[in-house]
TrEMBL record:
<protein>
    <recommendedName>
        <fullName>GDSL esterase/lipase</fullName>
    </recommendedName>
</protein>
<dbReference type="InterPro" id="IPR036514">
    <property type="entry name" value="SGNH_hydro_sf"/>
</dbReference>
<dbReference type="InterPro" id="IPR050592">
    <property type="entry name" value="GDSL_lipolytic_enzyme"/>
</dbReference>
């Protein structure tokens, strides 16, 4: 099996296992058993946040954040949610 296929299968397995572990009575009640998700990877899963850094590169103005509720720029170098955010929503994390 090629490396990318193994990575894809492993990632899908982790998501399914997390979803199933959350599904036994926690889903629908608003009380998730999972309190945090740690994502490691490149810019696809880490849009960064430089609001507290001394740098000229800023992301606290439009179009950054245009796909978030209210269209507010959050300092993240993304215009919306990334896969980690979507996983957090699926697992009902705040």
């Amino acid at each position: 099996m090629p490396d990318h296929a193994l990575l894809l299968v492993s990632s899908m397995l982790v998501v399914v296992m997390a979803h199933l572990s959350c599904a036994d009575g926690a889903v629908g009640t608003g009380k998730s058993k999972i309190s945090a998700v740690f994502m490691f990877g490149d810019s696809i899963v880490d849009p960064g946040n430089n609001n507290n850094r001394l740098t000229e590169a800023r992301a606290n103005f439009p179009p950054y954040g245009q796909d978030f509720p209210g269209g507010k720029a959050t300092g993240r170098l993304s215009n919306g949610r990334v896969p980690g955010d979507m996983l957090g929503c699926l697992l009902q994390l705040k």
